[in-house]
């Protein structure tokens, strides 16, 4: 046994720290997709291409036309707690970006083979850096168009225990697509066709999905979920003080057991919050029996000062100030729209 007082505590190496952080941030290819899409959106991209191989396990590559990164930024991009989105503790109270922890790229680089190529808008040339399993490369110049390309290959190649939790290509691809479609729904064009983000997805070199940047929310719902649902939706639009809710609710007969089509965005960020499930339940009370979950696609704009997003690493849950007032406002806004939906049941239309 060891001598009394022999030191046993040591600070973990950066590689190990990042691998531990990766366990929280990066669970599977779809988490890579989510983080890279957030970064592209934060960079102001209006066109994003996602290339996947083997459900994203072999490759996730995201190309964007955002502001890009210069060589000094590339030098830091893979380091933990390196971010351009947060400077002071006060900034934590009014975060407008999707990311802010500076953990995603560092986590990916510790468990995959990563490469960033980037050329800032207006710069004469681009640069690239490679980091594989936490081993850093040097920044070297490269020719490329403006924007950023981030490649994540062979996820968990150096952590076989985690790789074993991944499923078949098809299952992982479906999860990636669910994330991509949600992000596409989060960034529709406005009524003038402006301000939207376009997406193209290729899997194994074949185009599997796209939405044009000028498509509005309804067009995107139609592209993703089909005409039957899209043409039966009822619009929602209500402002109260600094809060606004807009989007669509479906007639009760479209309700599903799985709740997969209750999609909420808060200030452009996908949101899973139990409160919102309850809002929908209340709004459909009386027109829908307990059980199946109503279908709705809703954007919520709230004063960022009243929202705390620093609650969960996956960032799909938030803490809302004055939740009760918000609840009432939302239930009223949705109820009006729900009552306008076509209440016919499939049986009625047979008559
Ligand atoms: P976070 O998004 O929390 O800041 P990340 O690890 O995801 O942390 O990214 C680190 C930094 O790299 C970002 O703050 C941003 O400055 C830069 N970055 C990442 N992806 C892009 C991109 N696609 N375009 C421009 N800059 C990017
Ligand atoms: Mg990020």
Automatic annotation (TrEMBL):
GO CC terms, sorted: mismatch repair complex
Family designation: Belongs to the DNA mismatch repair MutL/HexB family.
Protein name: DNA mismatch repair protein MutL
Gene Ontology MF terms: ATP binding; ATP hydrolysis activity; ATP-dependent DNA damage sensor activity; mismatched DNA binding
Biological process, per Gene Ontology: mismatch repair
DNA mismatch repair protein S5 domain span: 221-339
Keywords linked to the UniProt accession: DNA damage, DNA repair
Record's function text: This protein is involved in the repair of mismatches in DNA. It is required for dam-dependent methyl-directed DNA mismatch repair. May act as a 'molecular matchmaker', a protein that promotes the formation of a stable complex between two or more DNA-binding proteins in an ATP-dependent manner without itself being part of a final effector complex.
